[in-house]
Specification:
CATH class of the largest domain: Alpha Beta
Mean pLDDT: 91
Low-confidence stretches: 1-6
Structural class: alpha+beta
């Protein structure tokens, strides 16, 4: 039996409880001689697994050399997203895309590992709630220690464009289910930010500016329309902790937020994390693979702001992020949203 979740659970008790889930999940993979290292708790609880030679049997094959894997317990640190994101079929669909990306493009992305029943999702029936678990092959590489260079930004633009191109060309299976990033998602994010006004993390005026910018974002979305050439499967969370570089080449990781949305959402979300003077390198490289003709600067700025609002909403429930939000809100309101509302470009400046 698993330990019961208690209202006054200490941090150490929580860590012990989560680790017990990780140990139990490994029993479904015939794994032994495993070292488990806690990585973090955000959208999922994640552990790095170091497995000795001959310790993991998968689909009838015994591995003879030490390997590294990622174990995910699909239980979020807070419930911003709906429970739909954590259902077995939705998780299987993420893994289906990863498997297809690896097979059809040659990209190095995390590859799913089936349990001994041949399923990519293992369900633990705890005393609290069922928890879905998955194991992925570890992607070798390092996070950048500083801001990307123009060359690295270009490599990342090329990588994203190839992901989007594969998504366009792939005949998605009928049983593939992933959530959507659409104007309703934007509205839900704004709703979740209202609590920050009540708690005086945001001012009333800052929130009003976010609302006005969101109305203009909707205008851009309506202009783009639902055409398949502008939307499809996207990564949904492409930033510096969700890609690594290995021998000079970028690799995308952590697809847990992937879903259906505008390709410009992925681009705008990524641009937020680049210095203004290298954003053009990302865009030029992306354009060399997927044509961005017809996309103007204000389109990109609209999706950048949408990405920022989505990011704020993700951080909002956690008290440890309040200082960040208090600093970031005035910057977004004054340097991005105000200028966007007035039609003043900011993409290559701030």
């Amino acid at each position: 039996m698993f330990p019961t979740l208690r209202m006054a659970e200490s941090y150490s008790d929580k860590m012990e409880r989560l680790r017990s889930y990780a140990v139990e999940a490994l029993r479904f993979y015939d794994a032994s001689n495993v070292r488990i290292h806690f990585l973090g708790h955000s959208e999922n609880v994640t552990y790095r697994l170091e497995i000795g030679g001959g310790a993991l049997q998968q689909m009838g094959r015994l591995r003879d050399v030490p390997e590294t894997f990622l174990l995910r317990l699909h239980t979020p640190i807070h419930r911003l997203r709906s429970d739909q994101w954590r259902t077995p079929d939705v998780i299987r669909s993420e893994l289906m895309w990863l498997e297809t990306l690896g097979k059809t493009t040659g990209m190095v992305v995390p590859q799913p590992v089936a349990n001994r029943d041949g399923d990519y999702v293992t369900v633990l029936h705890t005393e609290d709630v069922p928890i879905n678990c998955t194991i992925l092959r570890w992607v070798e590489g390092d996070h950048l220690a500083m801001d990307p260079t123009p060359h690295q930004a270009g490599q990342l633009g090329n990588l994203m464009a190839h992901m989007h191109q594969q998504a366009l060309n792939w005949e998605i299976p009928s049983n593939f289910i992933r959530p959507h990033y659409d104007p309703n998602t934007l509205d839900a994010s704004l709703d979740s930010l209202q609590r920050l006004v009540r708690e005086r993390i945001f001012t009333n005026r800052e929130f009003e500016i976010f609302e006005e910018a969101s109305l203009r974002i909707r205008d851009h979305v309506n202009r783009l329309g639902p055409a398949s050439s502008v939307s499809g499967l996207i990564h949904g969370d492409f930033h510096e902790t969700n890609y690594v570089f290995h021998r000079g080449e970028p690799r995308a990781i952590d697809f847990s937020c992937c879903g259906f949305g505008y390709f410009l959402f992925d681009i705008g979300y990524a641009l937020r994390h680049f210095l203004p003077n290298i954003r053009h390198s990302f865009l030029e490289s992306y354009h060399s693979v997927r044509d961005l003709t017809g996309v103007d600067q204000t389109d990109l700025e609209a999706f950048m702001i949408w990405g920022s609002i989505e990011n704020f909403a993700f951080h909002a429930p956690l008290h440890r992020n309040r200082e960040f939000l208090m600093r970031a809100a005035p910057y977004l309101a004054n340097n991005h949203c105000r200028r966007f509302i007035k039609g003043q470009p900011f993409l290559m400046e701030v």
